Amino acid sequence: VQLQASGGGLVQAGGSLRLSCTASGLSFRNYHGGWFRQAPGKEREFVAVVNRMSGRTYLADSVKGRFTISRDNDKNTVSLQMNNVKPEDTGVYYCAGSQTVLSGLRDSSNYRYWGQGTQVTVSS
Fold this sequence. Notes:
The protein is mainly beta. It contains no helices and eleven strands. It has strands spanning 2-6, 9-12, 17-24, 32-38, 45-50, 57-59, 67-72, 77-82, 91-98, 113-114, 118-123. The strands form two sheets. Strands 2, 4, 5, 6, 9, 10 and 11 form a seven-stranded mixed beta sheet that branches. A four-stranded antiparallel beta sheet has the order 1-3-8-7, with no helix packed on it. β7 and β8 (77-82) form a beta hairpin. The model has no long low-confidence stretch (mean pLDDT 97).
């Protein structure tokens, strides 16, 4: 199983960025596709996830109204559209796959497969 994250980079505050996660060896029809991030000196935190069965999406309160997560079943990708980014969005973004129950979607320990991470830096 391999998750390949891409799309990170440097962006000014207020700008947009789109991250993509392409999976091989697993299907996002069978695995929840999630995004987490980790800022320097901080713990990894939940950002967003798309439910494997319903396709319903869940977002952290800190990104609601600015980020959206989507899934393309044909391409087996999960994408994170980041709009109106803020300096506090800076960090390494990781995509991950899980088959956990709904109550566990926001807990990184419930994710079995992880991508390598992509750096997002938001300048003020």
